[in-house]
Design brief:
By secondary structure, this protein is of the alpha+beta class. It has a domain at 11-57 and 71-101: Alpha-Beta Plaits, CATH 3.30.70.100. The protein is built from 3 helices and 4 strands; from the N terminus they run βαββααβ. It has a 4-stranded antiparallel sheet with strand order 2-3-1-4. Helix 1 (28-41) packs antiparallel against helix 3 (77-90). The protein is globular, with a radius of gyration of 15 Å.
């Protein structure tokens, strides 16, 4: 995904680091796309960035205006169902951390 322009801090980052299972990928891509689509509709959503390597290790960082907006997203019914599927068949391991972004900057080569 393309890096996104974010607002001036402070805001929050939800950092989701995971290891995909190699056994069962059915439905994963569609569900992941649906989660992004739903998150974008949540009040307080600011953006998302995600990468995955060839071994299945992934990092997704979503950005939010407040802890309340993160909690609202956590309580979304479809998101709850997707998390259950993740535990049941898509991930061998994951961790989630929430961090408050106090300062940040971005540099892009050759930007004018």
């Amino acid at each position: 995904m393309t890096a996104q322009k974010l607002p001036e801090p402070p805001y929050y980052a939800v950092i989701f680091v995971n290891q995909r299972s190699k056994e069962d990928a059915e439905g994963y891509g569609i569900t992941a796309e649906r989660m992004v689509e739903l998150a974008q509709k949540e009040e307080g959503y600011l953006g998302i960035e995600s990468v995955r390597d060839d071994s299945g290790k992934g990092i997704t960082v979503s950005y939010w205006q407040s802890l309340d907006s993160i909690q609202q997203w956590k309580n979304n019914v479809e998101h709850i169902q997707a998390r259950k599927q993740g535990k049941d068949k898509w991930y061998n391991d994951y961790q989630l951390q929430i961090a408050k972004v106090e300062h940040g900057y971005r540099w892009i080569k050759n930007e004018r």
